[in-house]
Amino acid sequence: MSIPNHTDYQAALTQAIQALGTAAFVRRLAELVATQIRCDCTLVLSYRSNGAAVYLYDNLQHRRDLLFQQYLNGVYADDPFYRALSQGLTDGVYSLGALVAQQGRGPDYMSSFYQATGWQDELGIVLSLHKGQWLTLFLGRLSAKPFTRSEQARLHSLLPLLSALCRQHWPLEHEAMALSPQPNSPVSVSPTLDGANKMRSQLEQALASFGLPRLTPREQQVAALLIQGQANHAIAEQLGIGVGTVKNHRKHLYSKLHIDSQSALFAHFLNHLITQEKA
Question: Which residues form the HTH luxR-type domain (predicted)?
Fold first, then answer.
């Protein structure tokens, strides 16, 4: 399995931040995830407690009609992901096969509808936005090659960033989640190359100044790498220090910034970026 390209990741993160508050955000979010894992199909939906599934984005090329004619018209209620959410599924990266095994014999979802889609393996990224409302990114493969544990772990390390971005895009007071344009539909915002370069420059400047002067230079380095989705072991390797040292720096920078999680770190950085942009 190829190692994700860090340049592609940074470019996708820049575009996702740039798209916050616009109709292009969900598509950019899916493209950000795609820099970390190879898949053939991506579908993004929102679920609410006791409510219908809400379509947000897809890039389906095979049997797309099943999504609109069957799944969104009621089949979603038999989806193991939907059933697991109604039973209290928490934020995470889950395998469809694992959920099916946990739930035991249920509605004939797998042998009828799911088989017709052509998907051979599926991962779902579950993000809780507000009470009783979730965002789900479904990643599918049409080949028999299953997703690996390392791929799931890679996506899991991205969860705090994805959560912070989504909460910024859909604030607490935002009740309804607007539908994103379907593929080939016009998008209201189409950033120019100059705009993308400007945003990339702003992102780099924000990373360089984030946490200063409260953090030491090393803590600031660790914070910047955490914001870019790096795990502890990757940070240790890049900086030439031990994983334990990275954990200590992480603990200290959390304390100095008055935060208690990586998700809070991302949210803090997004606020810093927005404040810097307005300055």
Answer: 208-273
**Alpha helices per DSSP H over 170-209:** 193-209
Name the average pLDDT for the chain: 83
Residue 79: its pLDDT value, please? Answer: 92
Q: How many domains does the chain have?
A: 2
Q: Identify which of 108, 140, 104 has the alpha carbon closest to the alpha carbon of residue 122.
A: 140
Q: List helix spans (H) across 1-91.
A: 6-18, 25-34, 65-69, 80-86
Beta bridge partners of 41: 140
Range of the domain at 133: 6-169
Q: Which residue's structure tokens are 């989504």?
A: 166
Taking each continuous run of H as one helix and of E as one strand, the counts in the chain are: 13, 5
Pair 42, 30: CB distance under 8 Å: yes
Q: For residues 240 and 261, what is the distance between their CA atoms, to the nearest angstrom?
A: 24
**Does residue 247 belong to any structural domain of this protein?**
yes
Distance of alpha carbon 165 from alpha carbon 159, whole angstroms: 10
**218 found inside a domain:** yes
- Quick one: which of 2, 11, 19 has its CA closest to 190? 19
Whether the predicted model's global pTM rises above the 0.90 cut = no
3-class secondary-structure state, position 129: strand
pLDDT tens digits along 222-253: 998 888 777 888 889 889 999 999 999 999 99
CATH of the domain at 83: 3.30.450.80
Among 169, 202, 236, which residue terminates a domain? 169
Reference 46, options 180, 184, 140; nearest CA is: 180
Average pLDDT over residues 4-16: 83
